[in-house]
Amino acid sequence: MSVKVSDIGEKELVKYIIANSKDITPDDTAILPVNDFNLISTCDMLIQSRHFPENMSYFEMGFKAVTVNVSDLAAMGSKPIGFLLSIALYRDLEVDSFKEIIGGVLDACEYYSIPLIGGDTNEASEIIISGTALGLCDRPLMKDTYGKDDLICITGDIGLAALGFNLNTSDNIYVEKALKPKARIKEGQILKEHGATSATDISDGLASELYEIKKEGFGFMIHEELLGISDEYKKLANSLNLDYLDLILHVGEDFELLFTISKDNLDKLPIDFKVIGVVTDSDVVEITLENGSVEEIKNKGYEHYVSK
User: Fold this and answer.
1) Could you give the C-alpha distances from 137 to 34, 134, 185, in angstroms and in order?
2) d(CA 202, CA 252)
3) Handedness of CA 258, 297, 218, 10 (dihedral sign)
């Protein structure tokens, strides 16, 4: 019986590509040494029916297309230097809608100080936006260069976008995070300069990212009380018949940075962040719940070909 891509998922497909190419690094971006620096490059493709909620404007689509790419640069501590845009449109799309998309792209490029330097256009049955972000970095942050007893941190609240996707209103912080996510590009550069030992961005959910950076012999202990989950958040999730921890751990789209740092360097960080756990030698990804019980966190998050 033949195996379909839906049987194994996106991450296994990526592992196959990496295993069969000697030049690809298993990190958030490609790294190419150039003189005294490294050229950092990344690409992300967004498809209208999979990545853009129905209530997302065309302007917001364009802005997000830049954000998801710049977020990978942020995770490496890289400085953005250029953005390439490839976009496919259906032939009946109104020209004004196209202009809104480009307006969002250009606004995001200005926001992140990354110039739009080229790209391509094509025709498709729905809107497809593929971006490529380029950056420079002397010592890029990697995913798995942490050590035992390093603290696990995030640059801001997570789970807000996950809740926002389920709300009908349009005027609260949750929907704002869902429709207008922002990459932590400045924070990434600061982390690199102030002793962070590893970093990645949270695009597919905290649990998925923890498993993505996990290496053999190491584990992670997350503490629910350190996640700072508000009573309002819990009540809203409950009113929608949603599990608040599931939203926070397994949905994603926050684009906050997940990073590790030694206790000695913690006080040196001149940015807002939360300590949410610690690196262990348990070889297990776990969470201590508010009631004191400990549970293993399931390796579940958004994944192409598998997630609905």
Assistant:
1) 10, 10, 12
2) 6
3) negative
**Blockwise average pLDDT, block size 10, the chain, 308 residues:** 88 87 79 93 96 96 98 97 98 98 98 98 98 97 97 98 90 92 98 97 96 97 98 97 97 96 95 98 98 95 60
> What's the confidence (pLDDT) of residue 26?
73
3-state secondary structure of 175: helix
Write out the two tokens for 77.
């501590």
Separation CA 269–CA 265 (nearest Å): 7
Specify the amino acid at residue 164.
Answer: G
Token pair of 57 as six digits? 């404007």
Whether pTM > 0.90 for this model: the answer is yes
CA atoms within 13 A on the CB side of 163: 24
**C-alpha distances out from residue 79 to 72, 137, 269, Å:** 11, 6, 18
